[in-house]
Specification:
The structure is a single chain. The protein is α/β, with parallel strands linked by helices. The protein is globular, with a radius of gyration of 13 Å. A 3-stranded parallel sheet has the order 1-2-3, with helices on both faces. Strand 1, helix 2 and strand 2 form a beta-alpha-beta unit. The chain contains 4 helices and 3 strands, in the order αβαβαβα.
Amino acid sequence: MAAQTRAADLIRQHGEVRFLVLIENLTGIDKAGDWGDVSFQAEHDSSIEKFAIVGDKKWEDVVFLFTGKGVRRVPIEFFLPGDLAKAKAWLAA
């Protein structure tokens, strides 16, 4: 929830935003919690221009499921750790 609060604050401050998420030391996703809560998406997706995620290849499918790639209007791309510069370039384009 802290990440959602921070993201919402950034959107309020800057209007449209582009997010770069670096995944490091991820050991898994906890199934507990309210995975059906899409209130953040409903409220803020129109203000998110792009969403780049950088992480280990084994997490790509989980990340796309978690972020709703293909369901949301927000362009979401996944990059490997060695491709951080590509992720930044994609966000800037």
